[in-house]
Amino acid sequence: MTTLDSSAAWSSATRMVAANREVLAPIAGVFFFLPGLASAIFVPAPQVQSGMTQAQMMDAMQSYYASSLPLLVLLSLIPMAGMLTMLVAMLDPGRPTIGEAIRRSIGALPSYFAAQLLVALALTPLVLLLVGLLGAILPATLAVAMTMAALLWPVMRTMLIGPVIATGGRRSPLAAIRESLRLTRGNSGRMLGFVGLAGLLFLVVYGLVMMVVGVVLVLVSGGEPQRVIAEAISGLLTSAAYTYFVAILAAIHEQLGGRDRAPAPIFD
After folding, report:
1. CB-based burial of residue 207 (10 Å sphere; 0-12 exposed, 13-18 middle, 19+ buried)?
2. DSSP notation for 12-29
3. What is residue 165's predicted lDDT score, i.e. its pLDDT?
4. 194 C-beta neighbours (distance < 10 Å), count
5. pTM of the predicted structure, to 2 decimals
6. Euclidean distance between CA atoms 9 and 247, whole angstroms
């Protein structure tokens, strides 16, 4: 069993992004930034007003998903395809062209979606059971928080489904899940610490940047233009973070799969 070296994985991930930023930037723009911006502009989440009861908030959320679900599903599939495109490009030693990587990612998308759906279906009864048991003895908010914390373990164990499918070794959803479980055995805690620290770093940077952006936008604009500009800047930051996250997945997969290597540029 290979033990994850988070320092080496982070170094490998950052080298991947730095060496191939000319390729990764347009992929992130098309598959991450534009769908995210479209979602924020055309299907914004319902605003929770102060004084709303829990029933009113539930009604607002139900109405939102009932009217927006088809578009939300489409906008969620596009980033999935983008993630697989990046993984194909990063992990294939044959250095496929961007077109080849996109075609392969689209071909792998049904398997990846099915694998994630199977994981969600498997975890749903567990979530309901834990919320019910903990809710009987704890406040509802604390029960939900503890349930979400408990779900981090299965999330870490199945985090490498994308890289497994992108490499072409496992196209069966069940086989991809089993391979992810095999690769992450004994490393879920290290992965959680690694991904958690990276996520915390992003939240700090994101919060600082958006705080400055908010102050500037209040001074120079207002209304809908202000919201669109803020959403665009937020989308740029999120796209950059998601690119690094995909590189982290690729680096972890390379290391735990015994194929850790210094990443060369994806394309000559």
Report:
1. exposed
2. HHHHHHHHTHHHHHHHHI
3. 94
4. 22
5. 0.85
6. 9
